Amino acid sequence: MKRQVSEFYSDRSRHSFNRTAVVSYDGNSFIVDMFEDNLLIKSRVIEGHTLQYAEDCAENWVLGVIK
């Protein structure tokens, strides 16, 4: 079962887009669900890395580094 670990939001005062990212853990790997305007755009499974790595991925999404 997947459990949510953290959530990230874009800063609307700095960006023209509305993005969020949710980091979850399923017992084996982290999953980063990436949303734009409340629609799921993509999910990434992060295996063999730390929570910090998965959260960096989520942050990169909400900052617009990941397109």
β-strand percent reads 35-45%
Cα radius of gyration in angstroms: 11 Å
* Overall residue-averaged pLDDT value: 95
Quantity of strands, as a count: 4
Low-confidence stretches: none
Describe the protein's architecture and organization.
A hairpin with a 4-residue loop joins strand 2 and strand 3. The chain has a 4-stranded antiparallel beta sheet with strand order 1-2-3-4, with helices on one face. The longest helix is centred in the last third of the chain and has 13 residues. It contains 1 helix and 4 strands. It has 67 residues and is of the alpha+beta class. It has one domain.
Fold blueprint:
Layout lengths: L2 E7 L9 E7 L4 E7 L2 E8 L4 H13 L4
Antiparallel strand pairs: 1-2, 2-3, 3-4
List its salient traits:
4-stranded antiparallel beta sheet, elongated, 67 residues
A few lines on this structure:
By secondary structure, the chain is an alpha+beta fold. The protein contains one helix and four strands.
